[in-house]
Amino acid sequence: MNPFVLVQPRSHAQAAKVMAAGGSYRLPVLKAGGIDVLDHLKEGLLSPDAVVNVRRLGAEGPAVTRLADGSIRIEAGATLAQLASDPILLADATVVAQSAGSAATPAIRNIASAAGNLLQRPRCWYYRHAQFECLKKGGSMCFAVDGENAHHAIFGPGPCHIVHPSNLAPALMVLDGQVHLTGSKRDRIAAADLFHMPDKGILSEHNLEQGEVITHLTLRPRPTSGFHAVKAKQSFDWPSALACVSLRVEEGVIREASVCAGAVAPVPWMLPRVGAALKGAKATDDAAIAAAAELAAEGAKPMRDNGYKVALLVASVRRATLRALGRETPSFREIRP
Amino acid sequence: MSNQANTDAATLPPLANRPLNIGSSMNDDASRLDALAKVTGAAKYGRDVHPANALYIAFVRCPFGAATLESCDVDAARAVPGVVEADVSKRQGNYHGATVGHVAADSPLSLRRGMAALACRWKRKGDVVTTIEQGIEAEPELPVDAKAMIEQAGDRTLDATYSTEVQTHSSLETHGACVDHKGDSAVVYVSTQGTSSARDGLDEALGLPASKFEVVCEYVGGGFGSKLNGAGKEGMLAARIAAKHKRSAYLFVNRAEEHLDTGNRPSSRTRVRVAFEADGTIKGGHIQTWGGVGPNRGGGGVNVPSGRYRLGQITTAHADISLNGGMPRAFRAPGHPQGAFAEELMLDEVAARCGLDPLALRLRLIKADAIREMAELGARLIGWDKRLVNGAQAGPIRRGMGMGVTSWGRFPSSVDAEVVVNRDGSVEARTGTQDIGTGQRTVVGIVTADAMGVPLEAVTVRIGRSTLPPGPGSGGSVTTVNSAPAFMEAGKAAATQVLELVAGRTGAPVNELTIAGGEVRRNGAKVMAWKDACALIPDTIIGKGRNTQKTVAADKTTGTSGGAQFVDLDVDVETGVVKVHRIVAVQACGRVVSRKLAESQVIGGVIQGLSYALFEHRLLDRQTGAMVNPNLEWYKIAGPKDMPLIEPVLWSKDKEAAGPRPLGEPPTIPTAGAIACAIYNAIGVPVRSLPITPDKVLAAMAGKGGAK
Ligand SMILES: Cc1cc2nc3c(=O)[nH]c(=O)nc-3n(C[C@H](O)[C@H](O)[C@H](O)COP(=O)(O)OP(=O)(O)OC[C@H]3O[C@@H](n4cnc5c(N)ncnc54)[C@H](O)[C@@H]3O)c2cc1C
Q1: How many H-runs (helices) and E-runs (strands) does chain A carry?
Q2: Which partner for B661 in A63, A113, B205, B590 could form a disulfide, CB atoms 3.0-4.6 Å apart?
Q3: B312: left (phi over 0), alpha (psi -120 to 50) or beta
């Protein structure tokens, strides 16, 4: 790690000024919790001359608030731990609380921020190791294609086959989330427009411009929403597949459904066909829910070693839907001493 | 059937079976003597030692499975301010992590800059071998006798291939050494499993006679067999550089290097072809094994058949396959967990083919009576009667039970023990062994206190220095087995010398005097306070004890520790995820020194076995040969939420053994096999390849590559 200047801005707007192109630093990096930024510094994937620390900004106010128009506001610096236990989210945006609470480990959740979680970089083992000059680092090949791809994408044409790592992003997608910005002319971008596929730009996964800083997020409340992730290991592991579902249910019938998957494609992967199939189904119609979940597999093009993720995705979608409906999902026995 | 009722929870006694273990040891309640130092950080490991003005050293390593160093700017590295040495002597690497040179600099930052300035350009070589399958030219023919036996058996044969992946030791404290150079003498802090032996060879490297330096190793953050090679190449290089520059030198490898180049449990492939009878009796057959080792052959043995079961006439053959990967080293019961996995799952497959309960079959095949009794006890404790036949369940969550057995023999090791009694009544127990996390420091204290009749608090244990009397290395489960007799002897000798002084002063016959409750007593009545007795000592008292090959040979009682483990788990068949709920581990270890430490060894062995069964996998990239997961993120190790309720049961009926018996290795042997059997029981198809990850469970259930 090379020496750098640590900048402690007093506001997001000030941070945006430091970050703006043509500012005082050649390669400034914005850091919130720093979980992902520090990993990059240690592996030598980033060598900033300035680290702009926004971690404590807004920490004195509430992490989550209800706005006058009924929407919910989440501060950029809210920690995953705060989101997981927030009463407003637990009541009215369950999928956010559940997805935040399932991410990473308790220690990481205490530090990791909402904005940082959305913008963290992929965990692809070729990207993360300096000796692989892969597409994402400006190299000429994706090593996963003929290499080790058990944890790579089952959707998308490439040429890069990362999966989007964020738990929070798909939750935001199914609640029509908005990402609020400072530092440029626009003041927000829809969560749905935040990310792009690799064929639209490989060096970065998101559509923010240099100098744009996230101030907060807003989203639509949806009490009937749910999350499910499948992890091989229950501590300190990444989901092999996850699903976020939000539903509007009237008189026992699903009227609206929005479904988004994570860890299966280079971006949070919307599943509109599943949503359409859920519409009109009775909340108690297990067969219809299962049939809708099967549609999640449509269009999947697994690589050599990741075909199993298709089944995990289908199971995640079905279980997230059941969870949104407050129904029981298959779960292991509980054994306590 | 969706959620299975939580039927067991209510019937489990609090704290599981631990009450079974109460009263089984010399000291049931003692906690580790260094527990507080370790949790507060007061304990300083070798890695924590940073002498002033030290040089920091790193190896230059090959980043791929096979590559040629095309260019490397040694002069640029030497020109970096602070760099004192840069040397790259080799141009080829045949595994990721192979060392080709080093850089030494006066700070970690200069070192990093020096390494970067080398700007090594590596050209990958074409093909790399990353799996055993790749290296096998042809499946071997059956030997004639086995072939005849198998042909004759008709349908009653099993032909199955079991495989396991490379497991790295993943020691929390990485390998390395720090030389505190003091001009004409030195202290060498090494993270080692052999304090006394780590001194060998350092004299030459340091340019100092053995009398002028000391190896210090007060605390070790894990080794599991990978730190039995003296000072290691890390320590030797640090010593050479320290000698050359007459400065202190520090070389501890980082997490990635720890995975790449400090040893591992090699991968394995076991092809079993056996014939059996309708009642499950195994007539025999042939077992061919392969071990996936480093570029040089050697170290890939697979311990199957284990000899724990009657398997008829078995012939065996073994071949090591060279991989473009880091070399193996001894790893907690080398060759055993991989062999036990194949053997236990094979037995469950034979039992299923014969329509037999696998416990019933094993009770017939187990050779040792003690292990059979342990299996019967373990079966009762796990609730084996609730086990359903393989694959009998429907629904997304299916329950499985499985079992496996273990044993480990006693190896002799020489130990010199000294027990010093000071005039103020304090006691020191001294030997040059080390505590690699097993609790050896505490064991020495407890045995000494027990032998003398003084409280544990009165004993200060001195270990981890090469200037102490030679102590045992920590490998092969020998440390407690061999040091306990030496400290019993030394403790008794020291106590006797004190009692002789008391006898001289009071006229009481020495053989009627005892030490207890802080007093010297005769027939239970106080003769003198311990402190007053010690005040009679003219200078200090040293009691000596020695354990040798001869001591061990003279002890005709059993030297073997047997055991049996039972697993109760769930498999989510929609996702392939496995959740282990309970593991009952019945384990013999002769006379138990410390209940808590013994339980802790068993629990640790089970955890390592569970992690091996479900998660651990050194993954080499098939194209470049680089390890893609040299970290603790994608090299997965079981974490808190993956822990089952582990119930160690210390086998109290082990009266055959005169003293402590091996305990470090045996509890990690059967766990993976027992888990694989339980998964087979749950889903009805065997998964014959470790680690048993969701993809493999789903593929087995879909009929792809599970049972053939
Ligand atoms: C072992 C492990 C397991 C994990 N498991 C999971 C998991 O299951 N699910 C999951 O979702 N994540 C997981 N993570 C990732 C972790 O949640 C993220 O790294 C973390 O949320 C990042 O948040 P941070 O605040 O630390 O971000 P930082 O590391 O500080 O920043 C990350 C990125 O966001 C940018 N950024 C931060 N704040 C702003 C802002 N206000 N405006 C604009 N840009 C900003 C930074 O510039 C940087 O590019 C895991 C991590 C580890 C180490």
Answers
A1: 11, 12
A2: B590
A3: left
Residue numbers of the domain that contains A35:
1-55
Amino acid at B506: T
| Centroid of ligand 1 to alpha carbon of A109 (angstroms) | 10
Tell whether the model's pLDDT for residue B16 goes beyond 90: no
Distance from CA of B104 to the nearest CA of A (A): 17
In angstroms, the CA B105 to CA B279 distance is 69
Q: pLDDT of B547-602, one tens digit each? A: 999 988 898 888 999 999 999 999 999 999 999 999 999 999 999 999 999 999 99
Q: How much is the average pLDDT of B115-138?
A: 95
Reduce the DSSP state of residue B528 to 3 states and report it: strand
Q: Which tens digit of pLDDT belongs to each residue from A168-211?
A: 999 999 999 999 999 999 999 999 999 999 999 999 999 999 99
Question: For ligand 1, is residue A45 a contact (CB within 6 Å)?
Answer: no
User: Is A152 inside a domain boundary?
Assistant: no
Per 3-state DSSP, chain A is made up of helix, strand and coil in percentages (nearest 5) of: 30, 20, 50
Q: A166-199: buried (b, 16+ CB within 10 Å) or exposed (e) per residue?
A: bbbbbbbbbbbbbbbbbbeeeeebebbebbebbe
Residue of B562, B560, B572, B555 whose CA lies nearest to B614:
B572
- The full set of domains in chain B, from first to last, is 264-410+558-703 (3.30.365.10), 412-554 (3.30.365.10)
Q: Is the pLDDT of residue B47 over 60?
A: yes
**Is residue A142 one of the residues assigned to a domain?**
no
Which of A14, A18, A29, A35 maximizes ligand 1 atoms within 8 Å of its Cβ, making it the mutation to test the pocket? A35
Of B6, B9, B396, the CB nearest to A330: B396
- CATH classification at residue A300: 3.30.390.50
Whether residues B3 and A331 touch (CB distance < 8 A) is answered with yes
Phi, psi of B40 (to 5 degrees): -90, -10
Atom of ligand 1 nearest to the CA of A236: 1
Residue A17: give its domain's CATH number. Answer: 3.30.43.10
Q: What is the pLDDT of residues A122-161, one digit of tens each?
A: 999 999 999 999 999 999 999 999 999 999 999 999 999 9
- Per the CB < 8 Å rule, is B639 touching A150? no
Q: Which of A30, A55, A80 is the last residue of a domain?
A: A55
A119 lines ligand 1 (CB under 6 A): yes
Check: complex ipTM more than 0.95:
yes
In a domain, A283, yes or no: yes
What pLDDT score does B705 carry?
Answer: 46
Q: Which of A129, A305, A315 sits opposite B575 (nearest CB)?
A: A315
Q: For B324-341, write each residue's pLDDT tens digit.
A: 999 999 999 999 999 999
Which chain A residues have a beta carbon less than 8 Å from that of B395?
Answer: 330
Domain count, chain A: 2
Asked if B581 lies within 8 A of A335 by C-beta distance, the reply is yes
Of A12, A40, A55, the last residue of a domain is: A55
Q: How many secondary structure helices (H) and strands (E) does chain B include?
A: 19, 29
Which of ligand 1's atoms lies nearest the C-alpha of A239? 8
Q: Has residue B351 got a pLDDT over 50?
A: yes
> A312 and B4: CB-CB below 8 Å?
no
Q: What is the DSSP track for A177-236?
A: -EEEEESSS--EEEGGGTB--GGG-SS-SB-PPTT-EEEEEEE---SSEEEEEE-SSSSS
CB-CB under 8 Å, B621 with A148? yes
pLDDT one-digit tens code per residue, B615-672: 999 999 999 999 999 999 999 999 999 999 999 999 977 666 789 999 999 999 999 9
Instruction: Supply the pTM of this predicted model.
Output: 0.97
Q: Is residue A183 in some structural domain? A: no
Question: Tens of pLDDT along B478-494?
Answer: 999 999 999 999 999 99
pLDDT grade, residue B116 (50/70/90)?
A: very high
